[in-house]
Amino acid sequence: MPGSLPFYQKHQRHYDHDYRSSETQALVSKYRASSRSSSGYPAHTCTSGGYPAHTCNSGYAPHICTGHGLTSARTSTSRGLTASSYTGLEQSSQLTKRAKATHLAVDREHHIIGYVVPIFRGSLEFAGGYSGVEDSRLKATSASMWGQDHFTSGLEMERSEVSSRKVTIRESAERISLSKTIYENEEHSKRMNKDSLMHAPEFVIKPRSHTVWENQSVRLHCTLSGWPNPHVVWYKNNVTIDPIAHPGKYKIESSYSVHSLEIDRCDFDDTAQYHVSAMNAKGEQSAYASVVVKRFKGEMDTSAPSPRLGQVSEYGITFKTHIVDTFGVSFGREGETMSLGCTVIIHPNLERYQPGVEWYRDDVLLAPSKWHQMHWSGDRATLTLTHLNKEDEGLYTLRVTTKSGYETYSAYVFVRDADAEVEGAPGAPLDVRCLDANKDYVIVSWKQPAVDGGNSILGYFVDRCEVGTNHWIQCNDTPVKFARLPVTGLVEGRSYAFRVRAVNKSGMSHPSRTSEPVAAVDAADRTRMRGTSAPVTGQIIVTEEEPAEGVVPGKPLELEVTEATKNYVVLSWKPPGERGHEGIMYYVEKCVSGTDSWQRVNTEIPVKSPRFALFDLAEGKSYSFRVRCCNSAGVGEPSPPTEATTVGDKLDVPAAPERVVATRNTDTSVVVSWEKSRHAKDLVGYYIETSVVGSDTWGPCNNKPVPGSRFVCHGLVTGETYVFKVRAVNAAGISVSSQESEPVLVKAAIASPAPPFGISVLECVRDSMVLGWKQPAFVGGSDITGYFVDYREVIDGLEGQWHEANIQSVSDRAYRVCDLKENKKYQFQVRAANMAGVGIPSLPSNTFLCEEWTIAVPGPPHDLQVTEVRSSSLVLLWKPPVYQGRDAVNGFYVDIKEAGASEEAWRGINKKATDSKFIKIENLQEGEKYVFRVRAQNNAGVGNASEVTEPTLAETKAGTKEIMVDVDDDGVISLNFECSAMSAESKFVWSKNYEEISDTERIAVETKGSKAKASFLAPGEEDIGIYSCSVTHTDGASASYDLTAEELKKLLETSHDHKFPIIPLKSELAVELQEKGRVRFWLQAEKISANGKVDYVFNDNSLSAGEKYKMNFDKNTGVIEMIMESLTPKDEGTFTFQLQDGKATNQSSLVLIGDVFKALQKESEFQMKEWVRKQGPHFVEYLGFEVTPECCVILKCKVGNIKKDTVALWQKDGQEIKSDQQLSFTEGVLKLEIAQISKKDAGVYNIVLKDDRGKDTSTLNLTDQGFRDMMNEVFSVIANSSTALKITSTDEGIRLYTFVSYYNDLLQVTWHYKDSAISFSDRIKSGVVGEQLWLQIKEPTEKDTGKYAIEFNDGKGGLRRTVELSGQAFDDAVAEFKRLKAAAIAERNRARVKGGLPDVVTIQEGKDLNLTCNISGDPVPEVTWLKNEREIVSDDHLLLKFESGKFASFIITKVNSDDSGKYSILVKNKFGTESGEFTVSVFNHPEELGGKK
Questions:
Q1: CA-to-CA distance for 23 and 78, rounded, in angstroms?
Q2: pTM
């Protein structure tokens, strides 16, 4: 049908019309055959892309899916029809019998050409969904069509060519109508019973493999059926593909039932196995496909390694593989990340050839996963363990395969328990696995941890988590001790993961690593869902299975109890031989022993797999079991019952292993072997424990049980002695520990040495050759006792037989091989020997020609050794050449270069030849590897270089120590060296100037454990040199010490001090006075033992303790003292303390004679008097004074030992000071305040303390110098209170001034101008106004500019305040002065009215009024009179006069009432104006006034 859609695009309708029940399919096939016959249109095959092809005609044809566009014939048959027909109608209601599924399509020659996918069958109850009428009508219609087909088939065949279009259209319409009816009934059946639609995922079309070119895109797609809709996840090499993490790289689409993965721009990293996983509630299924990415020839990118696609095409190539830079025995902890890597060198190095690189753990191939990540960079293989668990412990092996063979490297990885969250909690269980997974239960097993935290493990808890969630649920309420637990209550079709935790009385362990997910489905369904992959043709054919008659199955076979515990019993059996072609299921029955009552266990749902677990059995009872088979034909006969099985644990804890033997292996490992536990069942493995002898602390050697009876325990401490125990493990528990092994010392086992290497010729004459070689890298744990040399002749490239060159071993690494033939060629090999035997020979040397050397220059030096390696330096030793040349060797040159650098990188160490056979090379780069060579010279020149040393890494190894020099108490000088990495065979070798010391008369060597000492017996100049010490059988432990002449001199001085020791003193003998005038002689020794003693001597006479002398010796502090109560003239002389401590001595003397003695005696007597004085009231501090910031003088003293009736009297000049003079007596301090002190306060002040115990007097002389000192203190306070010197201007000039907080008339100040005292005059004056001190400069000029200062004299140096009167400051001050001066002049000369005028004048009418006032001003002011603010002039009644420019008169004759008013005089000149006002009031006669009243 040209316009029809593929069935996988029809809107969630999972099946097209071909996918129906067999009855409906038979009806449609019959109708289709009839249509084909009548229509005359032949069938044709259409293929498109990678999709299945469709066989199309005018009717509905079944799909034929061809992976390569091929069409294969149908292979299934139907009863009564031909092989190619799908017609036929079932005539009975009996269930159809399923045909035997071959699943393979074959051609006529029986060659496999494809894969047959059975057509999906509808629900068996489909027919029951129709009503009876519909069922009858459908059968009648089918029968009618069947008869019509037989009746008309011949006629229609003849007329097929001329069949009319009308008939074809009518038939098509009828087919569509019938299809619609069938579809509606199908939908009705689904609505009536939805469960009939639910089924596990099934791949209708699986993804197929692809091979693509690089940079092309590829799409993997599949078609799925299943209900509910399956959840689809794509994987690459078992790792989930995340498109978000790789944007643009992957594109995942799901449209209806078609799912696809698109990989954009493929590269070589995309070459992998991909698989798609589908899962729903009914189960899960996966399908796989591979993608291979290729390149066009000639476009290989050398930057990335190519995948190995088979063997290289070149024949005759032999590959040599070397695995170097390997990983060693590794230790990790749970939760950490660990990487293991090796460098792989393959020769020859072909550009496009890649070896096979595989990683194994305990001989099991590892695949990439979230726990293991492999990487190959082209020359290095790396395995990364992303999250360590104890399951990761084991022997890891790298296997590199080429066409010439393979190379492997192995090393053990140990994983320790993570730190417990609770102290004392056990370690986590390990190796959690799921067994016997069924649709409602699973058996979880695990292995017990090696660490129980110090307390017995009480049991284990099992947790489960549904896949896709993070919610963990505990499965058991009480801990179980058996390492296996059936977990029930699972939901069918869902997947689960499990983990286990151990518990003891201290707490819970960390959870174990999560198990692999497992689906809760019947085992038979699981097998069916896994399916099988298509043949290599990729062809998939859909066909119908042949129905068959039902056959009741026979009895199950070989029923047995495979596992029995107190919690469950597991049965297993084999299917019966007679079962027909239809699938069978099983019913399990149980019976209590002794009865005949059989009870069916699984009454509701039969099981599909021949394995079943029974729970809830009574512990201790015996049961028998039997199984019945069933299918659609009925239930078969039961199997023979099992033997009676008692419910209980059948597995016992294993017995302890026996005969544990520990033997030496390496410096850090021991081999432990044992006899396996006897009669142990289901043994998991063994745990090994170790303890240092004497510690009683045991720790695990392995955290994962090991099979077998031998294990290498690593990580031990060299030189320690250990014992070992072994425990056996099975599911029932861990056995008790075995007996302890015999103690074993950890050190390398002795073996024969490795072969020497680097054979070279040192000299050659006509019949002999001198050979040199290098010491083996591994000496076998024992000193090399000698070497054996073999030689063989080489003739025309053919090697002869080997001959021994020496019968007796040689100790040197050089040997002359004699009896050779001149001009013949020879090869040599060398073997090393130790006490374990003779090692294997070295590789044959190069071929050397035996001919006499005649060159003038010397031969090569040999036997180069590197020692004393540090981060920035090392020492190189060598032996001189055997062949001297024409002249004797007179020097050596040393060359250096970085390892791996080119030959041009060689550079010299010394520009001038050295005559020593050693050199210290400095300024190395830490972490860099170097190689060295040496050349000898004579007068003829420089000879050939020696053999190059092995690469040496410039680093200071951990634990490296240097030689320390020491001088002991006896003065013996020694060199000391310690080595912490010694083995039992290690020895200290001392050398001077790098030649082993043989002179025992000068140096004595002593060794104790890991320490060695070289002591000088008679040190002198002969001992100057470089002393070195090396330790054999270590990783180059060595050091040196350069004993120079200067260093020897210092050591000899120290040695002398130690031979004749002196007790060091912190302080020499001294004297001090104490209370009551007592005299204390004392000294302090730096260090003195408890055996030290002291002799006290005065003038050569020994003193002893008594009334006069008291001696004390504190040996803890080293203080020695002698106390005398007083000094008398007889005590004048020399005092000596003599000390002795063992053989160490010292003494110290003090001479007390003459004035020194007299002064000490006088002071002693004074102290005695002071003590007596202080027995009553006394002055602690005598009378003194202090000046307050307010310049008040306070006289004060401090008193002691006073009481209530103690009296204090103040006096001045013998006169008692009255109490009103601010006397105070508080808190033991007496004060007398003098405010505004002046000369009158000078005098002698006394204060007397007295009571019934006595009195004490204190005097303060404040006269003359005492008064001046006090005033100087006052002046100092005043000076410090002064402000900064400032500048101001007046109408007379410039004034400089400062303020003080208080001024005293006795204060003396000096004004300075330019550092010279100022001589005062009428123009320059100084003065004081209040607290202001000023300097006035009248009429200042430019000559007055400069620095001015005022100095306060306080008798101590004074205090100066300065100011700079110059520049802008001077200009501003002068300008201000001029302004003020002009203002002053104007003020002085302006017009003024100076009195004479009253405010109010009251005068009787008729009287004369005469007022006169003084007028001043220059020039003479003008005078104007006003009345009521109007100017008036002089007349006969009002006479106004201004005489002499000074007097102004105002006269009114015969005043009358009109003269009353307000008068004013106004005077004015050019400097200003001033007025004076008065009021005139005229009154009448008194009579008039009285009449008015």
A1: 12
A2: 0.45
* Alpha-carbon span 415 to 428, nearest angstrom: 12
Instruction: State which amino acid sits at residue 889.
Output: V
Tell me if 772 sits within 8 A of 869, measured CB to CB: no
Which residues have C-beta within 8 Å of that of residue 8, sequence separation ≥ 6? 204, 205, 223, 256, 257, 258
pLDDT > 60? residue 156: no
Half-sphere exposure of 797 (CA within 13 A, CB side): 0
Strands 272-280 and 258-263: unpaired
Q: pLDDT digit string (tens) for 703-744?
A: 999 998 999 999 999 889 999 999 999 988 999 999 999 999
Average pLDDT, the chain: 82
CA distance 304 to 295: 12
Contact between 1263 and 1241 under an 8 Å Cβ cutoff? The reply is no
Q: What is the dihedral of CA 967, 968, 974, 977, to 10 degrees?
A: -100
For the record, the structure tokens of 139 come out as 């059968």
Q: For 405-428, what is the mean pLDDT? A: 92
Residue 189: strand, helix, or coil: helix
CA Rg value for the chain: 62
Helix 22-39 and helix 165-192: axis angle, to 10°? 170
Give 508's DSSP letter: B
CA-closest candidate to residue 728, choices 720, 739, 736, 740: 736
* 132-158 helix and 22-39 helix, angle to the nearest 10 degrees: 30
Cβ atoms of residues 1128 and 1157 within 8 Å: no
What CA–CA distance (Å, rounded) separates 933 from 894? 6
CA distances from 223 to 239, 937, 1306 (A): 22, 85, 122
The pLDDT tens digits of the residues spanning 559-580 come to: 998 888 877 888 888 888 777 6
Q: Exposure of 602 by Cβ count < 10 A (0-12 exposed, 13-18 middle, 19+ buried)? A: middle
β-pairing, 1207-1212 vs 1133-1141, is unpaired
At a CB cut-off of 8 Å and minimum separation 6, what does 1244 contact? Answer: 1212, 1213, 1214, 1259, 1260, 1261, 1262, 1263
Cβ atoms of 1457 and 1376 closer than 8 Å: no
Sheet holding 104-106, edge to edge: 104-106, 112-118, 540-543
Closest CA relative to residue 956, chosen from 850, 1034, 872:
872
- List the structure tokens of 157: 């065949």
Secondary element (H or E) of residue 1369: helix 1367-1389
Give the helix/strand (H/E) hosting 174: helix 165-192
Q: How many Cα atoms within 13 Å fall on the side-chain side of residue 875?
A: 20
Distances (CA, A) of 834 to 757, 775, 784, 805: 17, 13, 5, 19
SS3 assignment, position 985: coil
**Does the bond joining 348 to the residue before it have cis omega, within 30 degrees of 0?**
yes
In contact, 1149 and 1122? CB cutoff 8 Å: no
Closest C-alpha to 498, from 476, 527, 478, 525: 476
Residue 563 CA to chain centroid, in angstroms? 49
* Long-range own/partner contacts, residues 797-806 (CB < 8 A, 24 or more apart): 799/827, 799/844, 802/829
Q: What is the 3-state secondary structure (H, E, C) of 1162-1217?
A: HHHHHHHHHHHHCCCCEEEEEEEEEECCCCCEEEEEEEECCCCCCEEEEEECCEEC
Residue 1025 burial (10 A CB sphere; 0-12, 13-18, 19+)? middle
Structure token pair of residue 658: 């026996």
Angle of CA points 309, 313, 318, to nearest 5° = 105
**For residues 703 and 687, what is the distance between their CA atoms, to the nearest angstrom?**
7
